[in-house]
């Protein structure tokens, strides 16, 4: 059945639902005119990253690509402690049949990872007390102790960092962590951990505000949002659907919880911001652009995704218009990939976009104008064409500056950890918990941008922040500054 007619009966929706459940989520465009493509009855799905500008380290072989070093084991990190276990033969086996004596000429070495269960210790803070004998009126002197993240709590900065990382980076709900602590012989109720995380989240607010102020000093901001269920008092309000908004650029990440999806949230956050704002064109952002100081930029990945869905569903039988659009968009991403690989400056990116990207975008716009009446407007392809044409100016606007991205994938990648965690812990206990989660997620995702080890960074912040007394000292705790003296994740080598 012809694809456009097939869509009317819901087949496209059914196929996309199956693809979402059982297929890979890659959006890599596969050219149906490629000779290799003709060897397959089904459309091959490439094992690639979501962003088209990411390419595999591959070796060209006639007819296909072969990944280098496939199956090669990565060496174990050199900083790990090595415990040497030697194996030798007894003297009786080192004598040959005619009395020859075998001598050691070398070694065969192999390595295995050995796991030592988590070690938990208790730090005993002993504060000396002083007094003058017989002079009670002089009082007692007690040696001071550094301010703690949570006063009068058994939770140290390292313990709080471990719990926060486990929940907000590794997506372990607190009830699972409660069982892990119990297996170590330590009783830590989940309600205690929940209370600690809320206090830590509140403590991080000034730091996140300082980070957001620095983010807004630059001229480009990504914004996205995702729903989250929040529980309230069951006897009165029950639960409601709130929204976690994320603001991101190359200088930081900020999560912001709001009880609704209304545009008042981003308007309040970006009221004093001037520059490019990149979104998925949700109408809630429209109020941002009533002022000339903010410029709307659309997401090319959103426009491309609508055409990619059609090709995924119909493979070789997908409409020629769809395939032509995806080929042209592929060329746009090749330009971005080339600029990234060569570390182009913002000015150089602007120049290459002006010279190479604008003609492609404009030709694509004219092509879709010429062909929009050849497909049913309510079909999947018709809707994809309408989306591109309706948002053409905003889609093209990334070519106006070298600091703007071609798509909103920065925000989508930043919000993905929250969406993954939501599948595990399902909901936030209350509004205060949702706000605390937003503050902790912000710090973790910002630290990832600088490749910091999350545990070390959180421990550093939790211990330093209670003893910070100036804005200058506060700013020094941000990941952009902490990266210079905290350990980083090892860089993977291909």
Describe what you observe in this structure.
This protein has about 500 residues and is an alpha/beta fold. Among the domains are: about 200-295 and about 410-480, Nucleotidyltransferase, domain 5 (2-Layer Sandwich), CATH 3.30.420; about 300-405. It is built from 17 helices and 10 strands. It has helices spanning about 5-10, 10-20, 155-170, 175-185, 190-205, 205-215, 265-270, 300-315, 320-340, 345-370, 380-390, 390-395, 410-425, 430-450, 455-465, 470-475, 480, and strands spanning about 60, 65, 130, 140, 220-230, 240-250, 250-260, 275-280, 295, 425-430. Strands 5, 6, 7, 8, 9 and 10 form a 6-stranded mixed β-sheet that branches. A two-stranded antiparallel ribbon has the order 1-2. A two-stranded antiparallel sheet has the order 3-4. β1 (about 60) and β2 form a beta hairpin. α2 (about 10-20) crosses α8 (about 300-315), α4 (about 175-185) packs across α5 and α8 (about 300-315) runs antiparallel to α11. The protein is globular.
